[in-house]
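May I ask you for just one protein sequence along with its backbone structure tokens in two labelled lines?

_____
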Amino acid sequence: MFDPLTYSVKDIADFNRDGFVGSDEQFVAFRTGRLSFQHPAITARYQMLSEISSYFQVGYTGLMRDEAVFLFAQQRAVFMTTGTWDARSLLEQADGTFEVGVMDYPLPTSDDPVYGSVISGPNYERIDGGFRFGITRTSKHPEVALDFLLFMAGRTNNSKLNEIIGWIPSVRGSETPSFLQGFEPHLRGVYGCFRPDNLGGETWLEWVQQYSLFQIKKISYEELAAKFEPFYEKNGMTDFLEQQKSWRRALHKEAQFLAGIRANAFYDREKSDSWWIRYRLITADRQVAREIIHERQMRMVLNGIPDTVVNPYEYSPQVLEKVREKMKKRLKD
């Protein structure tokens, strides 16, 4: 309910223009003064959170998953957030006592007097496969195992399999069990672009402490921002640099991966360009582009952002003027 409100943060913090705001980009935006807790979208997120949580049970922040299910089954909670893994057990516990329904999270519309100005669309639900098929290297009969997995991945059989385990099938064309249709994900919409807890290290610990106090209304949003934001900007540099080191530590794995693709390209009997295209694209994305992005972020963190830079999805008047001059020259030539 709260994350979609922060989608507009990407307009000023998505420096690599991939549509998301990474923990590194978010820190750069704060460090250079482009982003703060006074941003309307961020303020709206925590205002809504405070409003909604006022209806929760006292001590809700300390409840674990099993305790939440227990309260719901006892009719001491009218609503709980969960997934398909709980659906069947909740239906069985409620059988003959009360009716269980599935609903979407309510979201404000564009005409909402408080949140309408920051909501950009419905909530996009990022999906992931939770039941992966695979064959071990030590399998005595890999061809038989593969045949069985293909059998289970067929539309009809996959529908039956997921009905038994109570999950939504990920095979295209398979039918979702009727009691799970309310859980089908929304594949069009917006997502959150603000996560102050994902830089790691000391900043993560500080956020957890201050955010917990805000959740139980021991401190206000203004106090949360006043305590965390200076700490984040001052101490986050250490965590940011450690994150950059971790990225570099993984470069050898990328090199090994690319070496395998390059070998396939060399030994491709069909002499097609597909392996070489794959090799060039991955090299450009995972090695060249990341180096450029890393250096740009470091330059911004250390030196600030030049006045000529507007937003990641915009161009400054100076840049536009240069583009116009180049276009005029090309038209003349």
